[in-house]
Design a protein that fits this description.
This protein has 268 residues and is mainly alpha-helical. The chain has one domain (2-253). It has eleven helices and no strands. The mean pLDDT is 92.
């Protein structure tokens, strides 16, 4: 176990440095949206290293390669989406709100905000580490379930992002997207993001591998972060400020995270 924690410590330090670089990039470009792409790529790379770096007493088996591939699949898609949404576009409304609210202290507060994101990435890579290093024979039924969960999550998030992209290309200014998944969840992309982290406990948990239970921190933390801290609250505050009663009506009718049938009719 000593070698595993040493590897985890090195990856953690690397993620801190990555987010220091992200702070420098957003300062130079004036667009903090690049932070999301860098965070996604850095977390995926850190997870891959946690999975496949050879260590004494911890051979790299099939499960480790599968977990590493899934981590790269997730991070690559999300980093590409974040980068394409940022390049040549206005700053994301969340970061624009921070820039407005923090004023002259924006860069200082942004640095510490990114250090919190680094800590989040470190905690999430712990789930990948214990999933990949589970010494149980691969591939069990639970491992196949983990593969299915992550593939469904990545595909679902991609569909939600594509639906929003098409809506923005044709919708009138100030309109609210209720196309496809967005008619069942106000944040289907966040739902599938949380679901994806449920894959790693499938790989990790085994009666003979007590560290595997640490993989539960990934989905729990990601759900808490997106639902109550850095995802839904700032985004919906910005939507309420720009769309007012129309968005309040959308909030009343449509689930915040878990896709569910709308509970009320849309106001005329």
């Amino acid at each position: 176990m000593t070698w595993l924690w040493a590897l985890f410590g090195c990856v953690a330090l690397g993620l801190v440095l990555v987010m220091c670089g992200a702070w420098a990039v957003q300062r130079q470009t004036g667009n903090a949206g690049w932070v999301d792409a860098i965070w996604s790529a850095g977390t995926g790379l850190g997870g891959m290293l946690c999975a496949v770096v050879p260590l004494p007493g911890h051979p790299v088996g099939l499960r480790a390669y599968v977990v590493a591939a899934l981590a790269i699949l997730w991070s690559g898609r999300l980093a590409w989406h974040s980068a394409s949404r940022t390049a040549g576009h206005p700053e994301d409304v969340r970061y624009a709100g921070f820039r407005r609210d923090w004023g002259a202290g924006f860069q200082r507060r942004m640095f510490w905000f990114l250090m919190i994101q680094a800590a989040a990435a470190i905690l999430l890579t712990l789930s990948i580490l214990v999933a990949a290093r589970n010494p149980a024979p691969a591939l069990r039924l639970a491992d196949w379930a983990g593969i299915a969960v992550l593939v469904v999550a990545v595909a679902g998030e991609a569909v939600a992002d594509a639906q929003m992209r098409r809506f923005r290309a044709t919708a009138a200014k100030g309109a609210i997207c209720e196309t496809g998944l967005w008619g069942w969840s106000r944040h289907p992309n966040y739902f599938f993001e949380c679901l994806g982290w449920c894959a790693y406990p499938c790989f990790a948990i085994d009666p003979a591998w007590w560290p595997g239970w640490l993989a539960l921190t990934g989905p729990v933390f990601m759900t808490w972060l997106l639902r109550y801290v850095s995802g839904v609250p700032p985004l919906e505050a910005a939507m309420l400020a720009s769309r007012g009663d129309a968005f309040r009506d959308y909030q009343r009718r449509v689930s915040a995270l878990i896709p569910l049938p709308p509970t009320r009719r849309k106001n005329p």
